[in-house]
Specification:
- The protein starts with a strand and ends in an 8-residue tail after the last strand.
- It is elongated and about 75 Å long.
- The chain is of the alpha+beta class.
- It is built from nine helices and 20 strands.
C-alpha cells in the first residue's frame, strides 16, 4: 500500500481565503490516520485535495512517491466514502456494489465473487436483494463502505462517514471500520470533528485549527502530552480543567480571584521555569483526580464548591468552583456529595500541566 506525503501544501480560494497553510504530513503504508478539528479548520479541504476534488494552490502532494497534483481523481487509486451514503435508490444493494465494477468493464463472474467477498466482510449478505430505502442508516453506511472496498483501492478516504448515524450505530460502526481496515490493510485517511472517534480509531491523529496542524501523534501522546492549549482542550471529554494565574515560589495564584494554591514538593526546576512566565494556565484532566485528601507527597489537594453534576452510568461528572474558577471532577457514580457544599479532591503533580498564556504552548 502506498505512502502519502503532503509537502508544504497550501489551499487558497479565489476570494483570498487561505484554508490550509504549509501542510507537512507523511501518512505511512497501511496506516489509519484521522484528521480532527473544529468546523473550518481545513481537515475536509485537506482530504478533498488528496482525493483530487480540490486543486492545490502550492506545494506537492505525493502518493507512492509520485507527484499527483495534476492527476484526476480516477487516476489516483483512491476510494472515498462521504458523509451522505449516495446510494442509488432504484438499485438493489447488489447492484449498488457492482455498479462501479461494471463501469470499469469487469466481467460478471468476477463481480459476483467480489460482491460475495465484500458482503461477507461487512455482514450485509442478507441485504443484497433489498433496495436502500429498506435498510437502516447503519446498514446503508455499510453498503457505502462496501462500494468503496469492492474497488480494492490502495487508499481509502472517509469524510465524516458516521455523522448521520445515531449514537449506538456510531459505536458499532467505529469498531466495524477499524476491523475492515485491519483486514484490508489499506492506507486510510479519515476526517471527523468528533475527538472520541479519533481517539478510539486512529493509529495517529492530526489535530488542525485554522488551517494549521497543531499536533500529530498517537491518541496516547495527544492525551498525555499535548503541545499546546488547543490540543489539551480539544482532546478529552469533559475537557481539561484550566485555571489562569501565575507562580510565585511554590504557590500558584489564580488571576480571577487571587486564590492561592500551594504546590509544596512540586518539581523545583519546572516550577522555576513556569514562574518566569508572566501569566500561565494550569491544566489537569477531570479523570486524573481522586476523591478526598491525600497525605502522599507529589499530590495537590483541592476543594471545590459543588454546583451541578452529570450522572453517566459508569461515571459521574461533578462541576463546581475553586474560588471563582470553574472545575470539573470525574469520579465513580457512588460518590457522595451535596450541592453548594465543599468536596475535597486531589490531583497528582505528574498530571498537572502548565501553558504559557501568550503563546499557548506547553511549558516543558
Amino acid at each position: 500500500m502506498p505512502e502519502i506525503k503532503f509537502e508544504k501544501v497550501n489551499k487558497i480560494y479565489e476570494n483570498g481565503y487561505h484554508a490550509v497553510h504549509d501542510l507537512d504530513l507523511t501518512i505511512k503504508n497501511n496506516e489509519f490516520v484521522i484528521l480532527v478539528g473544529p468546523s473550518g479548520c481545513g481537515k475536509s479541504t485537506t482530504l478533498r485535495m488528496l482525493a483530487g476534488l480540490e486543486s492545490i494552490s502550492g506545494g506537492e502532494l505525493k502518493i507512492d512517491n509520485k507527484v499527483v497534483n495534476a492527476l484526476k481523481p480516477k487516476d489516483r487509486g483512491i476510494a472515498m466514502v462521504f458523509q451522505s451514503y449516495a446510494l442509488y435508490p432504484t438499485m438493489t444493494v447488489y447492484d449498488n456494489l457492482a455498479f462501479g465494477l461494471r463501469l470499469a468493464g469487469v466481467d460478471e463472474d468476477t463481480i459476483e465473487k467480489r460482491v460475495e467477498e465484500i458482503s461477507k466482510i461487512l455482514g450485509i449478505k442478507d441485504y443484497l436483494p433489498r433496495k436502500p430505502k429498506a435498510l437502516s442508516g447503519g446498514q446503508q453506511q455499510r453498503v457505502a463502505l462496501g462500494r468503496a472496498l469492492i474497488r480494492k483501492a490502495n487508499v481509502f478516504l472517509m469524510d465524516e462517514p458516521l455523522s448521520n448515524l445515531d449514537a449506538l450505530q456510531r459505536v458499532n460502526m467505529r469498531s466495524e471500520i477499524r476491523r475492515i481496515h485491519n483486514i484490508t490493510g489499506a492506507t486510510t485517511v479519515y476526517v471527523t470533528h468528533d475527538q472520541i472517534e479519533a481517539m478510539t480509531m486512529a493509529d495517529r491523529i492530526v489535530v488542525m485549527k485554522d488551517g494549521y496542524i497543531q499536533q500529530i501523534g498517537t491518541p496516547k501522546e495527544l492525551y498525555f502530552h499535548p503541545t499546546n492549549l488547543f490540543v489539551a482542550g480539544f482532546i478529552g471529554d469533559p475537557q481539561m480543567n484550566f485555571i489562569k494565574g501565575h507562580v510565585t515560589g511554590d504557590t500558584f495564584v489564580a488571576s480571577k480571584d487571587g486564590a492561592k494554591i500551594k504546590l509544596p514538593g512540586y518539581d523545583h526546576a519546572l516550577l522555576s521555569r513556569v514562574a518566569k512566565h508572566k501569566e500561565v494556565i494550569m491544566g489537569f484532566r477531570p479523570e486524573s483526580c481522586g476523591l478526598g485528601k491525600s497525605k502522599n507527597k507529589g499530590i495537590l489537594n483541592l476543594t471545590m464548591i459543588v454546583e451541578v453534576s452529570e450522572m453517566l452510568g459508569d461515571t459521574l461528572n461533578i462541576y463546581g468552583k475553586i474560588g471563582e474558577n470553574e472545575v470539573v471532577f470525574r469520579t465513580n457514580p457512588f460518590t457522595k456529595y451535596e450541592v453548594n457544599k465543599p468536596l475535597d479532591f486531589y490531583v497528582p503533580y505528574d498530571r498537572i500541566l502548565f501553558f504559557d498564556t501568550k503563546s499557548e504552548n506547553i511549558i516543558e
